[in-house]
């Protein structure tokens, strides 16, 4: 797979602040995953010490345009879509569980992308997914 090429990555996204990352960590549920090397509860207890390195990792990734390979790992679990035949692989949907730090990073990037897409009017007028205050119902009303 070819690596993603980002032109001028340092101008693409503004760096995350300590306050922003701390708020994302503190408002997250305490559900640990197998990929996490420590419990989320423990991470929150030592957040004053850990917030600087966590924020630095996120900002280095944002400025370089490179996502650390360690954060690319996920536990994938099959989830039954509907009461369908269990022996049919099409009856399942893969659910990927990523590490907690990856989730925090994902939220930082998501907020930056939403700002960029909104400011530059790049959203499709009928897009509802991943768009604040828009739902399937909103799209159906626009079409109707």
Strand and helix map with partners:
Elements: H1 9-12, H2 18-26, H3 40-45, H4 47-64, E1 74-80, E2 92-98, H5 100-119, H6 136-143
Antiparallel strand pairs: 1-2
What does the model show?
It is built from six helices and two strands. The chain is globular and about 50 Å long. The chain is mostly helical and 144 residues long. It has one domain (9-143). The chain has a two-stranded antiparallel ribbon with strand order 1-2. The relative contact order is 0.14.
Could you say which structural class the secondary elements and strand pairing correspond to?
A: mainly alpha
Distance between the termini: 42 Å
Order of helices and strands, N to C?
Answer: HHHHEEHH
Provide the helix percentage.
40-55%
Helix tally?
6
Task: Describe the global form.
Answer: globular
Question: Which percent range describes the beta-strand content?
Answer: 5-15%
Flag low-confidence runs: none
Task: Please report the total strand number as a whole number.
Answer: 2
What is the subunit arrangement here?
single chain
Q: How big is the Rg?
A: 18 Å
Provide a quick synopsis of the model:
The protein has helices at residues 9-12, 18-26, 40-45, 47-64, 100-119, 136-143; strands spanning 74-80, 92-98. The protein has 144 residues and is mainly alpha-helical.
């Amino acid at each position: 797979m070819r690596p993603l090429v980002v032109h001028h990555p340092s101008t693409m996204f503004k760096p995350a602040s300590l306050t922003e990352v701390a708020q994302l960590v503190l408002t997250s549920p305490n559900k640990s995953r197998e990929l996490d090397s420590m419990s989320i509860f423990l991470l929150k207890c030592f957040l004053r010490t850990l917030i600087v390195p966590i924020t630095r990792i996120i900002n280095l990734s944002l400025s370089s345009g490179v996502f650390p390979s360690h954060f690319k790992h996920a536990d994938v679990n099959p989830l039954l879509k509907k009461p369908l035949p269990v022996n049919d692989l099409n009856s399942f949907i893969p659910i990927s569980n990523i590490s907690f730090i990856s989730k925090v990073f994902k939220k930082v990037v998501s907020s930056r992308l939403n700002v960029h897409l909104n400011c530059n009017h790049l959203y499709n007028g009928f897009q509802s997914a991943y768009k604040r205050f828009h739902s399937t119902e909103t799209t159906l009303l626009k079409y109707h």
